[in-house]
């Protein structure tokens, strides 16, 4: 069950990141974050009200609040990096986020078996190769690398915090709602400051209403991924859940291949195959 939820996380995050990167080519990253996370907050608020999630309020929500403070920094950095591209710069480095929850899991006493250790090594190597690392080039590419490293650290921290934010399904809805409201508040404050400094919040043509469904999808996919990851980490070893969830760059690369006709190089195809082998080892180890 851990493997299933973690793989669902990688699918959702991969699609959300692909959509967020595309949208950031047309809209400021802060605007993408605020609108997409705002849409997710509205849906989560309705779920909390419908399930009586307010009864789960307690000290654990501080973890959700902290995740909400860190999340916007990671998302904005990652969306900017994806917009700068190419995705071969961004995707493989994003897998470094797995280091944070894996380290925490090891410190808490988790000890993966030999097959799982092999799976971790194979899966991470496969994801890096699937991204087709392209670290040489112009200053824009170096900026994309730096932004992605910041995002990876932030995502890894959110992994850990959201796992600790709840112990029940209704509590998870509440925790994710608090996280999203905090995301919107932090992102909105940053967007307001940027506008005050003269940075436009919208393109010259005004709000692109045609992009709203895509913005909503990005926010909902992102919050669903947080939820499935929390379930995966609570039901099984964090080390396994984190590595399987970190396969999302493969999904991003495949989405770029399918929707943008970006050609997969030989090394990328080989990396995707290794990621699949690593997944099998982790799921059965």
Automatic annotation (TrEMBL):
Protein name: EamA domain-containing protein
Keyword annotations: Membrane, Transmembrane, Transmembrane helix
InterPro entries to which the protein is assigned, alphabetical: EamA_dom, EmrE-like
Domain EamA: 3-130, 144-283
SUPFAM superfamilies reported in the protein's UniProt record: Multidrug resistance efflux transporter EmrE
Superkingdom as given in the UniProt entry: Bacteria
Membrane spanning residue stretches: 28-49, 61-82, 88-108, 115-132, 144-162, 169-192, 212-231, 238-260, 266-284
Organism: Streptomyces mangrovisoli
Family (UniProt): Belongs to the EamA transporter family.
Any single Gene Ontology cellular-component annotation: membrane
């Amino acid at each position: 069950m851990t493997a299933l939820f973690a793989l669902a996380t990688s699918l959702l995050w991969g699609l959300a990141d692909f959509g967020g990167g595309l949208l950031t080519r047309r809209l400021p990253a802060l605007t993408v974050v605020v609108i997409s996370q705002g849409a997710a907050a509205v849906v989560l608020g309705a779920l909390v009200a419908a399930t009586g999630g307010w009864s789960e309020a307690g000290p654990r929500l501080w973890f959700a609040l902290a995740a909400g403070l860190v999340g916007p920094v990671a998302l904005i950095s990652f969306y900017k990096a994806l917009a700068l591209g190419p995705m071969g710069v961004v995707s493989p480095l994003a897998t470094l986020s797995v280091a944070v929850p894996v380290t925490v899991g090891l410190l808490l006493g988790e000890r993966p078996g030999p097959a799982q250790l092999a799976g971790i090594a194979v899966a991470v190597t496969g994801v890096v190769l699937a991204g087709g690392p392209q670290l040489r080039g112009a200053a824009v590419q170096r900026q994309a690398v730096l932004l992605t490293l910041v995002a990876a650290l932030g995502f890894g921290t959110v992994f850990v915090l959201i796992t600790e934010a709840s112990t029940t399904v209704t509590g998870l809805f509440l925790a994710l709602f608090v996280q999203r409201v905090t995301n919107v508040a932090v992102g909105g404050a940053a967007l307001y400051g940027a506008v005050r400094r003269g940075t436009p919040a919208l393109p010259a043509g005004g709000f692109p209403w045609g992009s709203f469904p895509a913005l909503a999808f990005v926010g909902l996919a992102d919050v669903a991924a947080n939820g499935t990851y929390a379930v995966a980490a609570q039901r099984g070893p964090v080390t396994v859940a984190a590595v399987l969830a970190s396969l999302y760059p493969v999904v991003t690369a495949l989405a770029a291949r399918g929707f943008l006709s970006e050609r997969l190089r030989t090394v990328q195809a080989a990396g995707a195959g290794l990621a699949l082998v690593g997944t099998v080892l982790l799921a059965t180890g």
